[in-house]
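Our consortium's second objective concerns turning raw sequence data into structural hypotheses that experimental partners can test. To show how far this objective has progressed, the report includes one record in full. It was chosen at random from the queue rather than selected for favorable results. The single chain below, 81 residues long, was entered without modification.
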Amino acid sequence: VHISGNNSLVKTIEEFRSRIFRYRLMSVTIPGCIEKYVSDHEKIISAIEKKDPALAGKYMKGHVTFVTNILGDFLKENVGF
């Protein structure tokens, strides 16, 4: 993001990250999920290394969907969201 030179984008991403930090931290504490997160990240990195943006995007979308669902379920069961 910083390399882009787009200050508006940098500010937007930094604000977004600060808002979701506690949820990101919470998501890595959910039992049994860290292995899936690592596997997802390895697939994303591999696709990037192969210069395959479509595949990287597919893996990233799947990862975000998984984390969203698992965190949503966790919050409903444990926090009452």
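The partners drew two points from this record. Residues 53-78 form the longest helix (26 residues). The chain has a mean pLDDT of 92. Both points have been shared with the crystallography group to help prioritize constructs.
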